Amino acid sequence: MEATAQDMIERYDARQLTRLSFDDDARHDASELANSEILGAALADAKGELKAALSVAGMYSDEQLERLAPESLALAKRVMCELALAFLYGRRGGESRETTAQIRQSAEEYLERLRKGERLFSIVESDAKEKAGQPSLVAPTAVQLQNLNGITHRAEVYFGGVASRLHVRPYGG
Length: 173
Known about the structure:
It is built from eleven helices and no strands. The protein has helices at residues 5-11, 14-21, 37-57, 62-66, 70-91, 97-115, 128-132, 142-147, 151-154, 156-159, 162-166.
């Protein structure tokens, strides 16, 4: 679960992001955003803040967060992108504090709900854990038994065929 520069571009204006993500006066385009250390740091901070809120509630394990349903993953990325954008705006001293506060407030509402222990994300259930501890019956098939070269096969006249011995209970139980 991680938001990327591409997630930011899909949600916000790329020109605004490039203006906020680079300190030099050179012209940058959206393809350079993936290499921006400033944007990378903002996304890392946003991920850290989301993980901190999730750890306070203790509702999701790291394994569950890796198996988020697609719509829940989109919501988590949205929260991280809003936080990252607020961090980018907050980094600029001349930017409107009101804009920063509005962006931050939207993400903070989700974080507060997560801290309180509400389950906002749905997890794609995997039955691998359930099957991992279940015993399974491993028995040879009739063909495998017939292909063995044991004493009962060599003395088939005395013991009878393999198929006749498979499901016969000697004591009728």
